[in-house]
Design goal:
Structural class: alpha+beta
Number of strands: 4
Distance between the termini: 82 Å
Helix content: 40-55%
Number of domains: 1
Largest sheet: 4 strands, antiparallel
Mean pLDDT: 89
Number of helices: 1
Strand order of the largest sheet: 1-2-3-4
Low-confidence stretches: none
Length: 135
């Protein structure tokens, strides 16, 4: 009968396997954190686009009110120096989720220009607009 000798083992395989498990676990956690951050960034981007669209639609609605002869409370008269033309500043703020967009436009409303000399050559409507940035 043959007897086998057992060699004294030091557990190096176990230590290597544990180190490998720690390294893989760390990589998985880093990947999960990065995915969560990318998801938050994409969500904010979508909310920012939606808040911009909401603000643009609201701004358009207020401009349409001006064209119909009603002055919305968001519209402030800023100039009447050109004969027969009134300039309004309209500011609109819209929020979606945590994203907020504020738009401001300068709008020209043309009234009676029959007594004006020379006649204004300005087109009625939005003259300019800007987005006021939030953090």
């Amino acid at each position: 009968m043959k007897t086998t000798k057992y060699h004294h083992q030091h557990g190096s395989t176990l230590i290597i396997a544990l180190l490998f498990t720690v390294v893989v676990s760390t990589l998985v956690l880093i990947t999960l954190q990065q995915s969560a951050l990318e998801s938050k960034m994409a969500n904010y981007f979508n909310n920012k686009n939606l808040s911009f669209a909401l603000a643009e639609q609201a701004l358009h609605n207020k401009e349409q009110e001006l064209l119909k002869g009603r002055v919305p409370r968001e519209a402030k008269l800023i100039s009447d120096r050109i004969c027969g033309v009134l300039f309004y500043s309209i500011s609109i703020k819209a929020t979606s989720g945590i994203a907020t967009t504020k738009l401001q436009s300068i709008f020209a409303k043309i009234g009676d220009t029959s007594k004006c000399e020379p006649k204004p050559t300005l087109l009625e409507g939005r003259q300019s607009w800007m987005e006021i940035l939030y953090n």
